[in-house]
Every structure is written in structure tokens, then in C-alpha cells.
Amino acid sequence: MSRHVSSRSFESTRRRLTEKQADTVERLASAAVEVLREQEFGGLTVRAVAARAGVGPATAYTYFSSKEHLVAEVFWRRLDTAEVPDGTGLDRTERVLAVLRGIALLLADEPEVSAAVTNALLGADPDVEHLRGRIGVEIHNRLGQALGPGHDPELLETLELLYAGALLRAGMGYGSYPELAQRLETSAKLILERP
């Protein structure tokens, strides 16, 4: 079940990228995190991120249609490169909990970034919708692997809804992301260990 993505992705939401373009996108994503740490989501602009990254605003808008798109890309990159827990020797519940914990804690040490991600992922921008779909598929696949072959599709959907609800709840300020991870584990156990 372990997977680690070590090669850089040269694909953005909008198109495949050359290595130079991929480097620009990476600089913009890193700059977005820096700006978020200082100003939070309300103060984030694509122009401010472009300035921090040392690129022109027109260049930034070539890759990102909105600040929501940019922040959704930050989360997608974190998720895509996060190592999937090795489930060897773990039972089904432990495997699922490890996956949920890993996803929930991706941004736990960056509250400004995590709050921005929740806001961004709720956006209606078509590029955000595309990334939201990719994120959903990745989470679906990780949970499906953790549940194992022949799992109940309704159980998988319940776990996906649990995660989405927890993300929304944390984004609304009803607890921190570390608290979210703990509550998510408790709730998932109730679902997975029901008679």
C-alpha cells in the first residue's frame, strides 16, 4: 500500500508544463504559502504571490485563474506527494485510520494555510472544481486501498463524507486540524467497528 511520489509532476490544472514552467508553478505555490502565513486567505492575492515569487502578475495568471485555484493547487501538491502509510501488519481499521490521519494532518502545523484550503476548495472556479475532483479521487483511492479488496462501496462513501465534513468543520473554526484528526479517528472507529 505504500507509495511515495518522488518525481515532480509537470502537469498543472490547465496543461502539461515544461521543466521551466513547472519551476515557476512551484515558486508560485511556495510563495502562496509564505503570503498565507502573513496575511491569511482574506489578504491573499495572485498579484502578491507573483511579487513574492519574483514573477509578473500576467505570468501568474497564466497558471492560476484565481487565488482559490492557487491555494487548491497547494493542497493538491501536498496530497499528491504525501507518502501513503504502509499498511503492512495493520488491520482494516488501523489502515483506514492511518490514511485519514495522514490526510488530516497534511496542513496541521499551518493553520492559516489549512483555513485557506477549506475556503479555496469550496470555490466554484472551474480550475478549482478540476482539482477538487483530483483530490477526491486520490482520497477515494487511498481509502479504498486501506479498506481492502471487496470493500463495501457505501462504507467507502461514508468515510469520504466523514472526511469532507471534518474538513469543512475545521475550516469553519470548530477546532484545530490536530483536533480534527483525533475526532476523525474516533468517528471512523465508530463506523468501522460497528457490529
Structure description:
The chain has 9 helices and no strands. It is mainly α. The longest helix is centred in the first third of the chain and has 25 residues, at 19-43.
Give the SSE layout.
Elements: H1 19-43, H2 46-53, H3 57-63, H4 67-81, H5 92-104, H6 111-121, H7 126-147, H8 153-171, H9 177-192
Query: Major sheet, described briefly?
Result: none
Molecular shape: elongated
Helix content: 55-70%
**Average pLDDT metric:** 88
- Poorly predicted regions: 1-10
Q: Which short descriptors sum up this protein?
A:
single chain, 195 residues, mainly alpha, 9 helices, disordered N terminus, DNA-binding, Homeodomain-like_sf, HTH-type_TetR-like_transc_reg
Short recap of the structure:
With about 200 residues, this protein is mainly alpha-helical. The protein has nine helices and no strands. The N terminus is likely disordered.
